[in-house]
Specification:
By secondary structure, the protein is an alpha/beta fold. It contains 17 helices and 7 strands.
Length: about 375
């Protein structure tokens, strides 16, 4: 190999690395898309056989007003914007809208807008032609084409970069789009449901989200309450997740006790329904599939001689447990040596409980200084 050949290889190294990285991303996104679509087909079959009030836990209680709005809008073609904290059940409500709509026999597809690399947004949403960019070895349909005749959930829509917001607005206004690298104007018969946990009005004020796009997607907004505002639903949800955990672990039928439910109701649930589901499954695993160890799953020590009927008593136990963990970790919250790891909960969850109980972690740092 001559020095000239070496120089030529060095010049090609960076573009080659970029091409390989882009190709890997494309293949990974394709794998994820296929998994989502397989899951969608199974869920679609189940939803078509179930009454919608049975598929949404809390439809007759804490989510009654939400489901009333679902009933109002489902059989129209109006775009819907679902607003709510992370883990509050936005996708479940979107599926309920689809299941009650005239499009129930068509596909329901969900795309997480925040998980798509900015350079691949166009390709993912609208598809691409073969050879349109490095790694585009085949023509591929985007989410809009694949959702033809059905519903497309644009989850975390506020995470779309500005350029993608412009292109999405054009599609919603004109009803047409081209694949990346293509010239043919395509169209798709798609009902749009968007969802976000962000304060979109604040983003508009800061110039981070287009106001005209907001008006297009928020024709019919639905606000989901956080789980802490649905305390009456916690028992029903806990039993639902316990039954699901029993099936997954092939154990005995599990159900939370009255003491378990009191612990669950006293917790703030910053991660909402998703966190409750994880806690119940963790409790089933900790109980070896034979019982629910809710106290340990929540990070509290088992309580034997104490009555759980008084909230002050429960908060006292939680306070002592957290303070003991902070003392052992010298005030450290995160990491393997942190209090959150010792308690088996997420650092954000621990901080939320500390704020609620008025616990100052710095006090434990000073004590060990």
């Amino acid at each position: 190999m001559t020095p000239g050949d070496t120089d030529q290889l060095l010049l090609l190294r960076e573009p080659l690395q970029a091409a390989l990285a882009n190709d890997a991303r494309v293949h990974e996104l394709e794998r994820l898309r296929e998994a989502v679509e397989a899951d969608n087909r199974a869920l679609l079959s189940r939803l078509q056989l179930q009454d919608i009030s049975e598929s949404v836990v809390g439809a007759e209680s804490g989510l009654r007003s939400v489901m009333e709005r679902v009933d109002q809008v489902a059989r129209t073609e109006a775009p819907v914007l679902i607003l709510g904290e992370t883990g509050s059940g936005k996708e479940v409500v979107a599926r309920a809208i689809h299941a009650q709509s005239r499009r129930a026999g068509g596909p329901f597809l969900r795309v997480n807008c925040g998980a798509i690399p900015p350079e691949l947004v166009d390709s993912e949403l609208f598809g691409h032609e073969r050879g349109s960019f490095t790694g585009a070895i085949n023509t591929r349909r985007g989410w809009f084409e694949r959702a033809d005749g059905g519903t497309l959930l644009l989850d975390e829509v506020a995470e779309l970069p500005p350029a993608a917001q412009v292109r999405l607005l054009r599609v919603l206004q004109d009803g047409g789009f081209e694949r990346v690298g293509g010239q043919q104007l395509l169209s798709a018969d798609v009902r749009i449901v968007a969802a976000t946990h962000r304060d979109v009005r604040a983003m508009i004020a800061m110039g981070e989200f287009r106001e005209d796009l907001w008006y297009r997607i928020s024709v019919f907004p639905i606000q989901l309450p956080p789980l802490r505002a649905r305390v009456d639903d916690i028992a029903t949800l806990a039993r639902h997740f316990a039954s699901r955990a029993s099936s997954r672990l092939h154990g005995v039928a599990l159900t939370p006790s009255d003491a378990d439910l009191e612990l669950l109701r006293a917790y703030e649930w910053p991660g909402n329904v998703r966190e409750l589901s994880a806690v119940i499954e963790r409790a089933a695993i900790l109980g070896n599939g034979l019982r629910l160890d809710i106290a340990t799953a929540l990070g509290a020590l088992p309580i034997q001689a104490r009555s759980l009927r008084e909230r002050d008593s429960l908060e006292g136990v939680a306070r002592r447990t957290i303070e003991a963990a902070l003392a052992r970790s010298s005030g450290r919250i995160e990491g393997e040596q942190g209090a959150a790891h010792a308690l088996g909960i997420h650092p954000a969850t621990l901080r939320s409980r500390m704020r609620k109980l008025g616990i100052d972690w710095q006090r434990f740092r000073r004590a060990h200084a």
